[in-house]
Amino acid sequence: MNELVRHSNKSLKWYILADFLLVGLSFFIANYYQRGSFTLSKTYWNLLVAYYVFWAFIIYMEKKYTRLQQVDFLGAWALAGKTCLYLLFLISFLTVLMQLSGFSRKQVLVSCVILFATEGILYSLYSHQIGGNSQSSQSSGSPNHLSFKISWLRLLLDVFLLFFSYFIINVIRRGQYVFSEDYLLIAYIITGLWFITSILTQKFKRANLQNIWYYISPSIKSLILMLFGLTLSIFLLKSYYLSRFELFGTLMVFGGSEILIFSAFYLLFKDPDREDDIESIDDVRKMNKQKMLDLTEKSITAENFINPALIYLFIDEERELYDFINSEIDIASISSDSMVFLDTRTSFNITQYKNDSIGLFVNLHTLNDFRWLNRYLLTLYEKVSDGGYIVGNLQTNDQYKEQFFSKMPPYLARILFIPSFIFRRAFPKLPILKQFYFFLTDGKNRALSKAEAFGRLYFCGYEVIAEKEIDKHLWFIARKVKTVSIDQNPSYSPLIKLPRIGLNGNVINIYKFRTMYPYSEYLQEYAYQHNSLDEKGKIKDDFRMTGWGKVFRKLWIDELPQIINWFRGEVSLVGVRALSQHFFDLYPEDMQKLRVQFKPGLVPPYYADMPKNFEEILESERCYLLRKKEKPFTTDIIYFCKAFYNIIFRHARSR
After folding, report:
1. Which pLDDT tens digit goes with each residue over 351-366?
2. φ/ψ bin of 99: left (φ > 0), alpha (ψ from -120 to 50), beta (otherwise)
3. Is residue 332 part of a domain?
4. Which residues contact 443 (CB under 8 A, 6 or more apart)?
């Protein structure tokens, strides 16, 4: 299989060179057809340069030769026709915009027709050589029927906006409501184009409000087609005398107001259950039924062997990734028909698989491009069998910063990184700006820390078993080992509530300012296993901590909201630190029983005794609690004074 791919890639290089030559050949043949000579004037040499520039631009934007490897005979001709139409549009747009009326319309049309014929033959030969792709041809075959239910409200609103744009531009241009003959011609052309493109794009089809792009994309496509048709009409009719302001101004006012109003309509009436990500336990319950997982080894009925697709996928360009997967997972124990390899950023491509049918899922697309990350992970959770594996990757904030600074001079990078930081990391977390951010980006290239990504995995029922940096991305292998979390909602806001063990073992919510990345609360066990504890009993070099979080902790700013707990009577001024369930379970049983007899405190005995390791912390707390049991008031006064002295004069700080 690899030999076939190498052969097709090698032959494709010759086809690219031949395609390059065909662009020039078609232009010279058209020139000979028009003038009886192959010699080009200086003006037409400039036009040929424009041909090549637009040709290269179309290749880049359309990923022309990548698609060529995925189409059959008819698809190859369709690809040639599409790119030639783009070329004709761009040349027409250039001549109309620059009012280059000296170019021959016949020569431009003939050159594009010749290019289409020769490229169609060339592409079809290539598709025949590599065997085509029947599946792609089925998916891109005959167009859908144009029968659909019309949204009359959208149609009437569009008609109103069309005539509104006519009057606005006419008033701005001429200061009157009466149309001139030239502007009437423009209005007739635009109206005709509006009618044709509305049918082709099914603009007035009743659409589900499930995605803003699907809702407004017909309007955007229609606007692009109208722009193409307008410039082509002016070029063919040689109506260069028409005002470019009236031509393109009318189109821009109409298209802009249409997209703006339809976007606002979508944001007002969207279905929140389909649009939003899953960010709460109630949302999880709606989507997934909770169940305990049985990870007992199951016998495999299919033949056990390494899937050839895996070797084909990673043997050359992704060899390091293949070695990483193979070193952590016994691939031979997974049936080949339960392996899935995709490069997708949506959940839609996963829904086709049966529940509990996937043993190994590899997605080459980065998690940074997912608009609804939790929804994707939970959809995948349904499809992956108990004990199954998922492999994915992300670009962490640190990796993004390193890449950002490597692309430009340091002084410029420092200036530009600040707005980039605010846009990618602050906007998605603020209520109003969040909608604006996702409207502009659709979630692509979002900021994502290792802590947030892994925390989301744990929240959705997975356990990270391995991680490795490959090609400036952090790759991970996670296993479906437990039920989706139903104990607490993920925290995202600056002020967070953390469940802690309080008096009599009751769970209380301790208020703090956020110092960790979102979803970090689900990673306590993972961080403890990989980082261990420092001398203060906290996780050493905790990757969950943000940069400003370290400053907040050093200055005790993060502890200030605990005053709310003090006013509510849930904590005392002096007392042992309120612990999470995970850290509480690390304590010996006698200390657990002793701890729950007292309220947690704002000022722990640690700052009075300054213990150096976890064992000394246990002894310090035991001594304090036993003394407090005998003399509660006096003990708290003594420990508060010691802690105050150590904090002020010995600079004891939390980390």
Report:
1. 889 999 999 999 999 9
2. left
3. yes
4. 369, 370, 371, 372
